[in-house]
Amino acid sequence: MAIGACIDDIHLKARTRGVLLVAVCNDGNKMIYPLAFGFANPECTESWTWFLKKLYKLIQYPDCVLLVSDQHNGIFSVMEVIFLDAAHGICAYHLA
Question: What residue ranges do the domains of the chain occupy?
């Protein structure tokens, strides 16, 4: 059984001015639930490396994963290195 996860970031406007890195999935009832999240300052390759390494440890069978993102350079370059056997997809909204 494959797991599909969407990963992205949200820029925080508060005093910290960091980013919230998130990974979300759908459950059996098509409801969205958070799989993992982390705070970083700022969005960069090092932040995504840290986050995706933690996500990799969380997922028991990383070869059965489909990761969907907006293919930001920071996300995509790190995703290819850490999730070698996972399928990678692009968000249809960002593709359009």
Answer: 3-95
